[in-house]
Amino acid sequence: MNYFSFFRFFELIDNMGTVGREETTFLAKMAIWSIGSDFCETDELGYYGKEYHLLKEVNADHISVFADHNPYRNIEPLLVARQLAGNADIVVVNHSLLIQDRVSKAPLFPKSAHFVIDEAHNLEDTLSEALRKRTSIETLSETLDRMVSQLKKQNSLPDNLDQRFEKFLSGVSLIFDVLTSYTLPKNSWDNDSIEILIKEDFLIENPEIKKIIQDLQIISTEIFNALTLLDDKVTSKIKTEISILEEASEILSLSLQEKALEKYIPIFSYSKTGENYLSYTLLNLGDFLKHTFWKEASSVILTSATLQINNRFDFVINLYGLDEEFELTKLESDFDYSKQALLFLPQDLGSVKYNNPKITQFLDDFFSIVKGNSLALFTSFRAIKDTYLALNITLKKEKITLLAQ
């Protein structure tokens, strides 16, 4: 859920101990924003670097938000939204919230509801991202530091546990070094950030990874065995940290084993200036949708202008796991594409992702040639801002007004 939780926010502050500049900035930002926000949907804000990790700590998609001992139940944004939705006949949400709700432990919408999904061709990207699990060195380091601090505060730190943490983090760092060496030669455009799929060739070229993973599994088993011996009152204070550590262990195992490539898509995200992330998402989205969505819903309607390829639905049927119960219909368009549209595909720009400077130069040349008279669509606020700042002055000299929204 993309909702802020007051309970988890104050729990995070209580568990933090000493905080740095980035943590302080994040906490202040969230506190000021939550007071004035009508719905407290975390998508309303922008986040940077370590804030993505901290955001998970204040997210409402956690069982503690629904617990009876939560003193903020009456004002928790998610619980308020659930109450409003429960009294509504029609609820309008974006793809992201819909998918996150389907995988949530406490869903907002009934599993058997009726669904109309517009722009259904975007469902694949949304689902892949919603099911994506990721970890980083920074996330793990901060998590383990908080765990040690909390256990020391309660005089409950098991013998040698901090040394095991250091050993675990050292092994993960070594894996990230190998992944970085694997990624850099593929960054042919020298972009500030890049995402690559981890394929079988990575495991073949780096056979030592298998041994490192095995060692990490042994260490993590020792860590979790030590944690299970702690008193329940102690573990209740580090539940969040334990879940992050469990997820990191799972990500490392599923992302870097040959058998896992049959079910998952492992991804390494490299950044020159920020954190590097190892993540994975599901490979076969159709099976997931079939068993967690289509079969449970009372009815589903998927609409889009681009669900067909070569006048056939075969691709989307396979991609989304649509069985014979789905009726497929195409409505003809009255738009005369041959007379009213021209498709122009530049062949020398490379990827449009990762702030490719060639894209900005192309737009500069294009706008100059057509004297403005253009609408450019972007997929992120950052791309809009960067393009505007790069082109506004030069286009203004040509008496071309550039507007950004």
Folded structure, characterized:
The chain starts with 5 loop residues before the first helix and ends in an 8-residue tail after the last helix. Strands 2-5-4-3 form a 4-stranded antiparallel sheet, with helices on both faces. The protein is α+β, with helices and mostly antiparallel strands. Strand 4 (264-271) and strand 5 (277-282) form a beta hairpin. The longest helix has 23 residues, at 161-183. It is 50% helix and 8% strand. It folds into 3 domains: 6-88, no CATH class; 133-282, Fumarase C, Chain B, domain 1 (Orthogonal Bundle); 337-397, no CATH class. Helix 5 crosses helix 6, helix 8 (161-183) packs antiparallel against helix 10 and helix 10 runs antiparallel to helix 12. It is built from 17 helices and 6 strands.
What's the structural blueprint in terms of helices and strands?
Elements lengths: L5 H11 L4 H16 L14 H7 L19 H10 L8 H9 L10 E4 L5 H8 L2 E4 H17 L7 H23 L9 E5 L2 H6 L2 H21 L3 H4 L3 H17 L8 E8 L5 E6 L2 H10 L4 E4 L11 H7 L16 H4 L16 H14 L10 H17 L8
Parallel strand pairs: 1-6
Antiparallel strand pairs: 2-5, 3-4, 4-5
Helix pairs in contact: 5-6, 7-8, 7-12, 8-10, 10-12, 13-14, 16-17
Key structural traits:
17 helices, 3 domains, two-stranded parallel ribbon, four-stranded antiparallel sheet, Fumarase C, Chain B, domain 1
Sketch the topology as an H/E string, one letter per element: HHHHHEHEHHEHHHHEEHEHHHH
What is the distance, rounded to the nearest whole angstrom, between the alpha carbons of the first and last residues? 27 Å
Q: pLDDT below 50 for ≥5 consecutive residues: which ranges?
A: none
Give the strand order of the largest sheet, numbering strands 1, 2, ... along the chain. Answer: 2-5-4-3
Q: Could you tell me the mean pLDDT?
A: 90
Structural class: alpha+beta
Shape: globular
| Helix percentage range | 40-55%
